[in-house]
Task: inverse folding
């Protein structure tokens, strides 16, 4: 068809094409070069102390808090309406890793694995760190290659390096707890083809040695009196004590060796806090209410027990804990309740004061006052005059009849608004005392003085008799029949004092005590006798469908009588995608 | 802008016009055009000055000389050139002209007065032609039988409607070989038998047969065929005769859009053009329609409705079509295939919609008014259960929960039931709430509600008004035409207590002036002012509508003591609407386009236009706290969601300007037709947003941000820029009206990519073959008036980035995501700032985050389209239409790149790594005819797009299918994977025997759904939710809509007219997953709808729904039984109009007066339950669409 074109037309065509080419090559670089007008680019950042501080602020969402909501559901302490899939053996290997980076303006390094938003998604201790995510590590490493640009004294820079290393240490420790060996990434990676991304996992102990180095730097460089809300030396020591106790006991009970240095470091860190004289347990001299009240404080800043609080203020930052706790469908296990001492300091198996468990009243009588201060019993004001008579059993109340009330206020306003401003602990002095007692006991160095300065301080607050090493009697129903009685009782004290605070599963792991969950009592609830059922009927509360076992104990999971521990549960599996992407990663044993 | 094809040069092949002058002009043209092109930008200085015969004078005298001599004198003194037939001038050899200085016009008048010739001016040359013969048309024929004698028949062919002479019309003798074509004046002269028949045919007109009947002078008028093939269609940077199109282009003219009320242009366009998909979004006043051409063809399903938006140009500039008055629109053209759209390059990857607004016409000033008043109400609404069913179902669900260890709560008591029944039966004498006995004695005692409120009815009680008015004045004298109009539109919201009012004012002014023969100036100014006043949108008010919610039927609107109900437990929408503050938005969108069109020499036209747009938006929303009360007005609490008081003020300023400059050359050489275009386009946008959020107002009812008690007001700002340049060219070549070729090329540069990857070249080509013009088709040409085959191929780049959707153009310039730096500077890593959820110094800490990763190789996506089409016209073009088949391949889609190990710690930067493919077809058919006085026309459009297949995607290596929005290589977008429903478990034992624990941990019972164990492992589960291991799931559907159609019928009988328009989708899988579909879908607070009452009980085992549960997740899995067909057919429009007879109208000094009634969306056929509107079902929860009844009037003075 084109052949038909005459010579003249062709001529025009050629010229036109030539012209087009010329036109097409007109580039307008200056017109097209546009750069952000209202955003920060790295070239212009890290100039001064303010920049370093603003950058470090992002880490703070990674602090784990004791917010008490459904905490310890993954342990022998609690029997939530929904069974924990890991302990039930139904946990499946995730295919993809969840991540905490997003394009949103509110960055949050914590995830909330059960999808419940608390205080804009900051989560509690035992719910975080289980994701194969390195966003925080990357943020830390980016700081470490850039902070030197700031034109400020080294000592000032080191404060923020200290904050950065605090968080990097904490994050790697959480990964070690969850996965064992982990890739230790301490470089800022830009090139996505780099081999460092595809490297193998670093052995657990080696990672922890690096973690210890980081945390020691933080301890050495963070200020004793940090500005309002920031991390200081004692927060770093509290983290160090927590990490080192975990690692020391883990090494001991997993039999991997080299535990002494860590146990000693835990004790040293705890003692530095204790000896600072800055902290003591909160008490107003009311053993029947101080412990309960401690967890519904509007303001923990300045509270002598708060080494670092998670604060909330009206209309600035609020949480939904009040209603969440009221509707969690959560419950302590029979096993947890049994472990609470009687008021004479003896276990239920030995104490003459124990009245049995035929009624909720019998069971809670003559017990450690922390019983009634963390479990709803008759007379508890649940909500603005809504007084508990019989334990409220149901999916939105409690699963087992032992309804956790730690942190639960009776505020109608908080309930209605689904917003409250009760503060949480990030580091609580009581934990430090328990760390000191346990570390010393594990080292074989626990004297009565040590116990008096730690365990007995806790007991004083609630009016319990002192623990006297010489008088300790082994509980015939002990969870740890082979352990020395002192360690056994220190662990019991820890369990009761820190109930619902999210430490229990970490403890089980470091004690290598997974088989505790095999105990049928760990999934049973209170005793619901036919006489008690009759009371419910009289009170028009429907418990007709509540399932009980042969001995009338509530069975929350009717299809099983007990859970079965498998050693693979000590470590979580790595998402399958990650293993596909990096053949150098090997799956954890058993998964 | 139109490039009128100079009809003068469409010289018919048998014409005997003297061509020497034309050739001379052509030489000029060639040289000038060459210079022009080479210089890239235009050489305005060298352009020949235009002139008129009135302006130019000549000094001359003629004394008995030839006429030819006389006109040579004129040519010598001026730039005018004469065209004539030598034969016709020969006769005049003794003309005379006294000496003198006269204008050319005067001179010609004097000269030609002595002849039978007349002159016509066409640009720079003057035609001399014979004066039209004066004939008597209605000569009475004498009935004498005589043998046929050949006579010379002379006459003129004109357009019946316009009276314009038609040039090149074929006039031949029926049955003979004799044929001629009309000349420049439409005149013809033919030898024909005096009893013969002349066949007069012309492309785009109905062929006429005229008996000679011994006449020697016959003037013939031709009717333009209905969908005139002579129709000129707006294409990129120009126009094209429809017969000469080679791409896939569809057009709608204002006649389809006028005569009925519509909320925005999208409302009117829906269904009119096959494969132009318009989503109305919902019926909330001010809701923008979104557009899509040929389906969602890219990886953007997850981006909520902004996917694959085409480029929309209004009079050549990118504007939001939702913001213009539909009455101002003259035509809408959709460029569907890449070849047609290629001229727009990097913005046109998803097609182009060209909207042309009306212009003034020369002639007397016309004043037109059109107005309508409309009442509307929701098409469909959720029907919630009544109070008694609610209690029954609630307690039933609770029993299931208790029985199976599922979710349970406190059930309604016997007293509740008694009181509710009493109220239900006799609301006048029973209270809708009674004091809660369990809180007797408490000072803040609450009611237990036992009323029976149909909340849907309360919220949407009646008909909401809507009105529109448009007044326009247009006209022009001589060379200047103008049109000015003022449109007003007001719509009240359907949700009555919200009191939403949306108003739009659209003044426009359009002036065009042919300043000189070679120069046209144009000015286009328009402004859209909108006011939208609605209740403050809080998290509880779902985008301005309360459609479905957690308001139980038991709750009355008011407590028995008269306060608003709610009591802290429930949200009372009536209270929130009435008490919680307003959200007021006002916007000025001001557009000005100045345009210069220069015709330096013949065949060449240069257009330069510059557009400036200022868009300002002020938005102010405030929240006012209000109290909630219990029994006897006891104060309970402050309603929490609007507390503390606050005001948000957003002020946005967007400046945009665009420059287009292009030159067109068009000419015909014998059988060759050539048109070339070259041009330049640049655009620049500068966006600024300032926002403040202030809490704790000192006077909550005075929403002024300055008056507050907020320790830390929040202040924000965004400022971004964007620039684009493009050069483009197009070449059209046509041989003998049969073979059509078009070649496009565009070279684009954008500020959105880094300099190395910034530019993109996109060529395209299309060809067409007018089969019917071939000689072998001559015999059928009488019946088959047109048959054209088309094929095109093109590749277009796309510069937009993932995360927003690969869109051609964001319609709403103010959408914050569009103006964000992530969108405008996607290749620059920025450090985000924000707040951290931790208190530092008593405030949330401000943080600066680490930058994300950016791919160095980030560049344009590429969209390739192959299109094969066919246009046809039959029976004098009464029947016409087209068919197109297309294949779209999109490659280098910016998508999450190949996954890296998570140890990277950042999202993998998007890279040009994905590809999709789809194909489809569209068919259209128009038929226009009349039976006596009944004129009718019908139009049918039918289209389909295949599912979009992902051919390459690295972001999901495990092929996870857990969400319908997951992209899986090798799979179609929108695939629904689910289980096979095998009815219900008949006994508890049967249910207990199957391990369903992966779906729901509670105990499964009789009446729960029995899923098929597809993999035979004895368990029902989803494996690991990957394509390779999806357990018992299988592919059960796809959400892509298929077979869309639109059907138009227009009738007119004498003064009456009737129009109806039916639109629909024949097949669309819909996976309902909402409150209304499952009883207690989310939890105890989800209120069931009436359709859920047919649930399984031991006595109703044939139910549609399973056993009722609170959040019965196990039964609510995606499954074949509950994949519904959201297909529908809807009568979008039904109009009956009456035009007053012209005698009557003239008496009242009007030209035209029409009144009409229109019903919109009145009837819908669908298999979906009444709670769903099929048009919005997939985005359930949107503000309901409306059906309406309008009364309108149109008048022209």
Result:
């Amino acid at each position: 068809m084109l052949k038909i074109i005459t010579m003249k037309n062709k001529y025009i065509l050629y010229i036109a094409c030539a012209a087009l080419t010329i036109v097409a090559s007109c580039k307008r670089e200056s017109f097209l070069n546009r750069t952000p007008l209202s955003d920060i680019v790295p070239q212009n950042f890290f100039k001064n102390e303010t920049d370093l501080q603003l950058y470090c602020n992002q880490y703070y969402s990674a602090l784990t808090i004791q917010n008490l909501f459904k905490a310890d559901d993954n342990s022998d302490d609690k029997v939530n309406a929904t069974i924990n899939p890991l302990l039930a053996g139904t946990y499946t290997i995730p295919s993809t890793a969840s991540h905490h980076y997003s394009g949103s303006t509110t960055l949050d390094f914590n995830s909330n694995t059960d999808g419940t938003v608390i205080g804009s998604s900051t989560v509690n201790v035992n719910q975080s760190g289980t994701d194969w995510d390195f966003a925080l590590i990357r943020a830390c490493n980016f700081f470490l290659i850039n902070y030197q640009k700031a034109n400020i004294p080294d000592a000032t820079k080191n404060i923020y390096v200290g904050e950065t290393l605090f968080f990097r240490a904490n994050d790697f420790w959480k990964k070690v707890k969850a996965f064992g060996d982990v890739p230790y990434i301490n470089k800022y990676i830009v090139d996505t083809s780099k081999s460092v991304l595809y490297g193998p996992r670093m052995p657990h102990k080696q990672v922890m040695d690096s973690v210890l180095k980081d945390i020691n730097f933080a301890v050495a460089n963070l200020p004793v009196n940090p500005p309002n809300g920031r991390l200081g030396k004692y927060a770093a020591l509290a983290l160090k004590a927590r990490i080192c106790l975990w690692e020391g006991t883990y090494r001991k009970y997993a039999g991997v060796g080299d535990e002494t240095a860590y146990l000693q470091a835990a004790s040293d860190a705890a003692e530095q806090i204790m000896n600072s004289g800055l902290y003591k347990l909160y008490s107003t001299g009311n053993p029947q209410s101080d412990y309960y009240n401690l967890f519904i404080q509007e303001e923990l800043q300045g509270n002598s027990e708060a080494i670092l609080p998670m604060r909330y203020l009206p209309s600035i930052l609020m949480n939904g804990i009040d209603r969440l706790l009221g509707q969690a469908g959560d419950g302590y296990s029979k096993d947890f309740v049994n472990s609470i001492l009687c008021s004479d300091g003896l276990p239920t198996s030995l104490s003459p004061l124990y009245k049995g468990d035929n009624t909720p009243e019998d069971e809670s009588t003559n017990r450690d006052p922390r019983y009634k201060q963390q479990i709803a019993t008759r007379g508890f004001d649940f909500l603005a005059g809504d007084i508990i008579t019989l334990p409220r059993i149901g999916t939105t109340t409690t699963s087992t009849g032992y309804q956790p009330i730690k942190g639960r206020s009776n505020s109608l306003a908080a309930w209605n608004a689904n917003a409250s401003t009760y503060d949480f602990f990030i580091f609580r002095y009581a934990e430090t005392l328990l760390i000191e007692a346990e570390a010393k006991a594990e080292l074989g160095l626990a004297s009565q003085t040590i116990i008096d300065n730690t365990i007995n301080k806790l007991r004083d607050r609630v009016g319990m008799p002192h623990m006297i090493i010489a008088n300790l009697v082994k509980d015939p129903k002990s969870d740890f029949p082979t352990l020395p009685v002192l360690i056994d009782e220190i662990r019991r004290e820890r369990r009761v004092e820190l109930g619902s605070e999210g430490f229990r599963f970490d403890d089980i792991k470091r004690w290598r005590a997974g088989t505790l969950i095999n105990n049928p009592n760990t999934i049973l609830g209170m005793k619901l006798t036919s006489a008690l059922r009759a009371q419910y009927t009289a009170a028009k509360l429907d418990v007709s469908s509540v399932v009980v076992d042969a001995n009338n104990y509530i069975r929350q999971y009717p299809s099983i009588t007990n859970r079965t521990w498998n050693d693979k549960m000590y470590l979580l599996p790595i998402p399958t995608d990650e293993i596909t992407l990096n053949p150098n990663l090997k799956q954890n044993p058993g998964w | 802008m139109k490039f009128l094809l100079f009809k003068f040069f469409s010289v018919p092949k048998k014409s005997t016009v003297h061509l020497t002058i034309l050739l001379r002009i052509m030489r000029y043209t060639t040289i000038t055009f060459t210079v022009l092109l080479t210089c890239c930008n235009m050489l305005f200085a060298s352009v020949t000055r235009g002139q008129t015969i009135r302006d130019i004078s000549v000094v001359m005298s003629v004394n008995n000389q030839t006429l030819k001599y006389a006109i040579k004198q004129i040519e010598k003194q001026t730039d005018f050139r004469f065209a004539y037939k030598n034969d016709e001038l020969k006769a005049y050899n003794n003309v005379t002209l006294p000496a003198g200085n006269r204008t050319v016009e005067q001179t010609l008048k004097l000269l030609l007065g002595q002849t039978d010739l007349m002159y016509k001016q066409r640009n720079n040359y003057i035609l001399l032609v014979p004066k039209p013969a004066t004939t008597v048309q209605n000569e009475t024929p004498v009935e004498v039988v005589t043998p046929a004698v050949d006579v010379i028949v002379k006459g003129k062919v004109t357009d019946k409607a316009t009276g314009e002479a038609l040039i090149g019309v074929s006039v031949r003798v029926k049955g003979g070989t004799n044929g001629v074509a009309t000349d420049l004046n439409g005149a013809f002269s033919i030898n024909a038998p005096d009893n013969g028949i002349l066949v007069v045919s012309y492309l785009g007109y109905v062929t006429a047969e005229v008996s000679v009947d011994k006449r020697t002078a016959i003037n013939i008028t031709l009717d333009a065929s209905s969908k005139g093939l002579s129709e000129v269609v707006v294409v990129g940077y120009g126009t094209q005769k429809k017969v000469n199109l080679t791409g896939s282009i569809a057009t709608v003219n204002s006649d389809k859009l006028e005569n009925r009320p519509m909320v925005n242009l999208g409302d009117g366009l829906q269904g009119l053009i096959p494969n132009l998909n318009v989503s109305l979004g919902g019926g909330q006043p001010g809701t923008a329609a979104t557009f899509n051409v040929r389906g969602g063809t890219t990886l953007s399903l997850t981006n909520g409705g902004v996917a694959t938006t085409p480029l929309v140009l209004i009079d050549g500039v990118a504007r939001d079509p939702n913001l213009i008055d539909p009455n101002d629109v003259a035509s809408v053209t959709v460029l569907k295939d890449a070849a047609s759209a290629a001229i727009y390059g990097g913005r046109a990857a998803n097609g182009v919609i060209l909207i042309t607004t009306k212009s003034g016409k020369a002639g007397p000033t016309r004043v037109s008014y059109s107005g309508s008043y409309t009442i509307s109400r929701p098409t469909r609404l959720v029907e919630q259960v009544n109070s008694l069913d609610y209690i029954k179902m609630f307690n039933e669900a609770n029993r299931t929960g208790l029985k199976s260890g599922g979710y349970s709560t406190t059930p309604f008591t016997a007293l509740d039931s008694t009181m509710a029944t009493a109220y239900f039966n006799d609301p006048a004498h029973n209270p809708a709430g009674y004091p809660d006995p369990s809180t007797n004695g408490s000072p803040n005692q609450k009611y237990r509600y036992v009323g029976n409120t149909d909340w849907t009815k309360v919220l949407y009680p009646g008909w909401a008004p809507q009105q529109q008015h448009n007044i326009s004045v247009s006209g022009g004298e001589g060379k200047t035409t103008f049109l000015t109009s003022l449109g007003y539109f007001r719509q009240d919201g359907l949700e009555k207590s919200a009191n939403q009012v949306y108003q739009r004012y659209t003044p426009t002014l359009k002036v065009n002036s042919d300043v000189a023969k070679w120069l046209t100036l144009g000015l286009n100014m328009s402004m859209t002012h909108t006011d939208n006043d609605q209740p403050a949108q809080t998290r509880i008010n779902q985008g301005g509508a309360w459609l479905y919610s957690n308001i139980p039927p038991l709750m009355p609107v008011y407590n028995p003591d008269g306060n608003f109900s709610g009591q802290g437990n429930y949200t009372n929408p009536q209270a929130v609407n009435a008490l919680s503050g307003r959200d007021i938005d006002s916007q000025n969108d001001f557009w000005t386009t100045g345009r210069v069109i220069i015709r330096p020499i013949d065949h060449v036209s240069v257009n330069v236009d510059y557009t400036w747009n200022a868009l300002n938006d002020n938005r102010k929303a405030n929240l006012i706290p209000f109290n909630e009360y219990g029994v006897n007005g006891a104060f309970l609490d402050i309603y929490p969601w609007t507390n503390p008081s606050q005001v948000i003020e957003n002020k946005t300023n967007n400046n945009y300007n665009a420059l287009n400059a292009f030159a067109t050359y068009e000419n015909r050489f014998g059988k060759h037709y050539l048109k070339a275009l070259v041009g330049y386009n640049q655009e620049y946008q500068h966006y600024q947003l300032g926002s403040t959020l202030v809490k704790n107002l000192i006077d909550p009812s005075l929403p002024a941000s300055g008056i507050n008690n907020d320790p830390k007001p929040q202040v924000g700002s965004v400022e971004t820029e964007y620039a684009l340049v493009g050069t483009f060219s197009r070449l059209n070549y046509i041989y003998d009206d049969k073979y059509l070729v078009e070649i496009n090329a565009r070279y684009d540069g954008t500020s959105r990519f880094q300099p190395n990857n910034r530019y993109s070249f996109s060529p395209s080509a299309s060809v067409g073959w007018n089969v019917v013009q071939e000689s072998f088709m001559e015999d059928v040409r009488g019946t088959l008036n047109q048959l054209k085959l088309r094929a095109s191929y093109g590749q277009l780049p796309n510069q937009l980035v993932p995360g927003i959707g690969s869109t051609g153009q964001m319609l709403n310039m103010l959408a914050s995501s569009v103006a964000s730096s992530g969108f405008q500077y996607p290749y620059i890593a920025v450090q985000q700032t924000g707040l951290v959820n931790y208190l530092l110094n008593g405030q949330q800490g401000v943080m600066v985050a680490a930058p994300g990763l950016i791919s160095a190789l980030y560049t344009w996506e590429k969209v390739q389209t192959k299109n094969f089409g066919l246009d046809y016209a039959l029976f004098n073009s009464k029947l016409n239409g087209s068919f197109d088949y297309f294949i779209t391949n999109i490659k280098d889609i910016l998508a999450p790149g190949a996954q890296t190990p998570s140890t990277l710690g950042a999202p993998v930067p998007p890279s040009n790594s994905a590809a999709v493919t789809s194909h489809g077809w569209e068919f259209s058919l128009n038929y226009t005819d009349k039976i006596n006085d009944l004129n009718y026309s019908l139009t049918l459009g039918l289209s389909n797009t295949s599912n979009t297949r992902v051919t390459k995607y690295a972001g999901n290596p495990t092929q996870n299918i857990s969400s319908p929005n997951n992209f899986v290589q090798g799979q179609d977008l929108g695939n629904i994977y689910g289980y096979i429903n095998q009815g219900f478990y008949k006994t508890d034992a049967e249910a207990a025997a199957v391990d369903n624990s992966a779906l729901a941990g509670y105990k499964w019972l009789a009446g729960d759904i029995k899923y098929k164990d597809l993999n035979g492992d004895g368990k029902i589960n989803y494996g690991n939710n990957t394509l390779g291991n999806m357990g018992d799931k299988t592919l059960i559907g796809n959400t892509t809509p298929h077979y869309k159609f639109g059907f138009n019928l227009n009738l007119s009988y004498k003064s009456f007219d009737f129009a109806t328009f039916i639109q629909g989708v024949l097949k669309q899988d819909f996976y309902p997953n909402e409150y209304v579909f499952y009883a207690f879908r989310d939890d105890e607070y989800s209120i069931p709808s009436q359709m859920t009452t047919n649930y399984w009980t031991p006595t109703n085992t044939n139910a549609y729904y399973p056993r009722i549960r609170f959040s019965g997740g196990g039964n609510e899995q995606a499954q074949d039984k509950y994949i519904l067909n959201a297909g529908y057919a809807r009568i979008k429009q039904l109009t009956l109009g009456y035009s007053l007879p012209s005698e009557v109208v003239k008496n009242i000094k009007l030209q035209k007066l029409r009144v009409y009634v229109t019903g919109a969306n009145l009837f819908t056929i669908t298999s979906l339950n009444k709670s769903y509107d099929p048009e919005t079902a997939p985005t359930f929860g949107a503000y309901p669409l409306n059906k309406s009844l309008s009364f309108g009037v149109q008048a022209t003075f």
In short: The CA atoms of residues 272 and 333 of chain A lie 36 Å apart.
